[in-house]
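Hi R.,

Here are the chain sequences for the assembly we discussed:
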Amino acid sequence: MSTVVLLALTGLGLAALYFLIASGLSLVFGLAGVLNFAHGLFLSVGAYAAWTVSESWGLAPAVLLGIAVAAATGALVELVLIRPLYTRHTEQVLVTVGLSLAGVALLQSVWGADARVFPRPAWASSVVSIAGAQVPADRFLLIGAAVLVLLGLLAFLRFTRYGLVIRAGVENRDMVSALGIDVRNAFTLVFTIGGALAGLAGILAGMYFSSISPGQGASLLIFAFIVVVIGGLGSVTGAFAAAVAVGLLQQFVNYYGTAGAGDVSVVALLAAVLLLRPAGLAGKAAPA
Amino acid sequence: MLLVAVVLPWSTLSLPGLFEGPLNSPGTLQLLAICLVFAGLALGYDLLFGRAGLLSFGHALYVAAGAYGVDILVSHYGWQLWTAAAVTVPAAAVLAALLGSVALRTSGIAFSMVTLAFAQVGHIVINRDPGGLTGGEEGLPLSSAGLPAMFTGVVNTVNLYWLALAFLTVVVLVVHAIDRAPLGRTLTGLRDDERRIAVLGLSPYRLKLLAFVLAGTLAGLGGVIYALVVGGASPHIASSELTLSLIVMAVLGGAGTRWGAVVGGFLYAYLDQRLARLGGSLPGPFGEPLFVLGTLFILAVYFAPGGLASLGSRLEPLRRALRPRRPGDGHPAPVTDAV
Amino acid sequence: MILKINDLSVRLGGSHILQGVAFDVAETGVTALLGRNGVGKTTTLRAVLGEVPATGEVLFDGRPALGRATHRLVRDGLGYVPEDRCVFAGLTVAENLRLAVRVPSPDFDLVFDLFPELRQRAGQRAGTLSGGQQQMVAIARVLLNPNRLLLVDEPTKGLAPAVVTAVAAVLERVATRVPILLVEQNLAVVRRLATDAVVLEAGRTAWRGRAADLLSDADATRSLLGVGTTAGRH
Ligand SMILES: Nc1ncnc2c1ncn2[C@@H]1O[C@H](COP(=O)(O)OP(=O)(O)OP(=O)(O)O)[C@@H](O)[C@H]1O
Ligand SMILES: [Mg+2]
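And here is the predicted structure of the full complex:
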């Protein structure tokens, strides 16, 4: 029993990371039609920015700075690189591919290829006893952050004008323009939000794994992609459900099966979902 | 230019800026052989991307299948090289057929993500070293016991060079034959407008699957050659980074053109290796090959959307003007002469 | 003339769909844009709106429209009611309307006067509305803002006869305030609403003039539209 609780909470912690990355990816893809390979870079940028000032500023301001820098990176990438290629989706993907390669190399040249020890709040290193299981407190940090982000995102999408524009744009971008709305502002906004959430994910991943490295974003990104596809492109709640499914499945199968079986089973889940429901659990079908 | 590729191993010429030793030194020959292998891999990938319009992010899987397949059969099971290759390449084709038949149920970006996910499994499995087969993160050196003598020892590097050149030739012959065949036109038709092909009564799904399997087979073959040239297999060739670099090669050279991917692959592999060697001596991020290549790639997407091949055709009027008597061979890109 | 189109040409997916369309839309009344299925009526509207790349000349309210962003043209008063409604299925009726509002005092009075039903259905998701109700939402959302010209694409497509009459009545009322460029297959509706008519054929303008003249000429309607005004298909 205690093992199950520990595994479940650890799986949910992982799910929280996936969700933070995938929700931004999913919105960016759903609205702007861009598969953003540079999303992993936003994650690393946020983590390194926070790491750099964490000694001198203290952890909380460092976290805020990391999120802000990642958000700014997201906005900048949209404005400078993505916008000029408006509607040319393949080129946009290619540019984000180039950016992910060059960006990680740039981080490597500045901070080195080796992992850095990432600080965490003291209480996150403690252990909580639940139903007989000794659960590291950082799990709750991740899960709590993801739930807050989910609620915040849903409220934003539901109750604000921009949220309305984004929901409509995910359904039919052209029609939003045909109502006299400059949908490109919403693109910049989702890139900024995606960047901020990725930055937060990068920082939390740093706390969870106790270290950061330039390539960390890229490896988390692949599972986030899977979460996005399973959840349905453009759907935040779909991404949440898929993240929970993927995180739990991966954790349990990795523990009870052979090493690596969890990762394989996640991809098997992806294949199954695609065969049964090509558009994912929720959300619209991918444009051809 | 093919002639240059053929006579090169006999040349003792030194090109100090470009290569470290004379052209026929083992080091230079191996570097060139790797460039040739990547030229072939890039063109094979371009069959999918440039011709059929399928942006696969999982091509590395089939390269890895070839490399690890042959490496494992030779090094662990003591098979002879040729038998191992004869089993591995069809196995890569079968793998491509299986995974392609699932992935092609989606289209567009979802297809890209699914291929990426499949390849990621390969990468993970290889890294985990199941049953001690793959050597995990260290990779698996190719045991020379099962290899024909002509492929072992430094003095025989030239034979690896020939092998790489032969691989590139095979890929070029196959892809260009497809370009000329009705299949090639149908594939590009598919890329431009799937509905039109469906109207012709052809199944887009089957055509795409055919292209996927062909490209996977060529990748498997390339993986076999790669393992021979570098003397083993390492997890890097299964990584998404390898696929991304194949995309970069195809786009840099000019996706969908006759020679674009070949030129792109050759140049990319060359720059990658040379920059890695020069790394320390260059300032800041320029010491990172991927920074330079990634940036070049982004610039190419904006400023030379057709890749090097399109730069060539833009220069074509100039070239005509300079050499008025040259008969127009209908071949737009002067860079193609470079291979 | 609120809209002047000259030599409009559009290529899509390798085919030359419009090859020099030319016509004007008057400052008042309804101009019907007619032609057989697939001739390029929708494409013409989308080209005017900047949704598909086009060459040639389009003057909206005297200013060049080609090359301008869609949302700017719309803000200048070009209202668009697309073919197949294109309401946002996942949004409620109220949200669909709220999204369209871009002026401080939107004309909800007019909208609820024309479509009282929408008031009761404010909380319903637009995807669950009937075709006729969706059409009401699509028309309502352009009427919330002031317009200089409406582009209305097949508003009666797929609707029951009674609903067709209701939609036509609404458009008739709207046309007293703002000119309409109307794509319409139902010739009874055209006869009731249109003052002028333009017929496209093979990517070009094949006929332009008074709607009444076109409809009273049985040969012209048959050869241009493939239908007799009274009989069935050609
Ligand atoms: N994106 C596209 N790519 C290729 N062809 C297109 C595209 N959009 C439209 N077409 C073609 O252009 C032609 C004109 O289409 P359009 O929708 O403008 O016709 P229409 O006159 O509105 O027809 P209908 O009366 O059926 O609504 C059609 O043959 C259509 O197949
Ligand atoms: Mg139409």
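Residues C 41-42, 83, 153 surround magnesium ion (ligand 2) (CB under 6 Å). Chain B touches chain A through 44 residues (CB under 8 Å).

Let me know if anything looks off.

Best,
T.
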